[in-house]
Design a protein that fits this description.
Helices cover 0% and strands 23% of the residues. The chain has strands spanning 26-28, 33-35, 42-45, 50-53, 61-64, 69-72, 106-107, 114-115, 131-133, 138-140, 147-150, 155-158, 166-169, 174-177. Strands 1-2 form a two-stranded antiparallel ribbon. Strands 3-4 form a two-stranded antiparallel sheet. A two-stranded antiparallel ribbon has the order 5-6.
Length: 209
């Protein structure tokens, strides 16, 4: 790092080794992260292996090894673990939840409890959706059509599931009707484009192609 005061080049650290100026009020030697704003407290979680906004583990946050993320200490021993709870994108803003600085919570309409996204309320036990995908953070309570998650497409699709009414073609890199298995010619990236008629993106479309 180069000190802007004396121009000395040196290994990354909180202070200049030559003139002693402090580069940042907060400095993490693991993340090599500086923060001099002082607007919000910052701490390093050794389990998440990154810096987060908060006073620290055991103060206002704790690391849940079941959910594999940091949660408000008010939820300690009061929530139901959901493996990889934040390992995905927000379905609304698409921000990656694990590194987001915004609190990730869902509000139960029955008891008003705020909690990490999951299928059931950790307080009153109400089910938020008959179908819930922990990867996509997707809920469906209509029950009109079956829904399944494809680990290869990495999204939820309408259907009963792989090996039932759909299969994933690794050549086409998409899910196709099981009636086409061993009966179609592979076309790489078959659905990686927009429909020339309605302009809908084919890969995530719920309409039959």
């Amino acid at each position: 790092v180069i000190c802007m005061m004396c121009q000395a080049r040196q290994p990354v650290g909180q202070r200049c080794s030559q003139c002693g100026v402090v580069f940042g009020k907060y400095y993490c030697s693991v993340c090599k992260f500086f923060d001099d704003s002082g607007e919000k407290p910052v701490y390093h979680c050794p389990y998440c292996n990154l810096c987060r906004i908060g006073k620290g583990l055991g103060i206002d946050f704790f690391h849940c090894h079941g959910c594999n993320c940091c949660l408000s200490i008010s939820l300690q021993d009061k929530h139901k673990c959901l493996e990889g709870a934040l390992e995905g994108n927000c379905p609304v803003c698409t921000e990656y939840l694990f590194t987001s600085v915004s609190p990730v919570k869902v509000i139960c309409m029955m008891c008003q409890a705020r909690q990490p996204v999951g299928q059931r309320c950790s307080q009153c036990g109400v089910v938020f959706g008959k179908y819930y995908c922990s990867v996509c953070k997707f809920f469906d309570d209509s029950g009109e059509k079956p829904v399944y998650h494809c680990p290869y497409c990495n999204l939820c699709r309408i259907g009963k599931g792989l090996g039932i009414d759909f299969f994933h073609c690794h050549g086409c890199n998409c899910c196709l009707s099981i009636s086409l298995q061993d009966k179609h010619k592979c076309l790489e990236g078959a659905l990686e484009g927009n429909c020339p008629v309605c302009t809908e993106y084919l890969f995530t479309s719920v309409s039959p192609v």
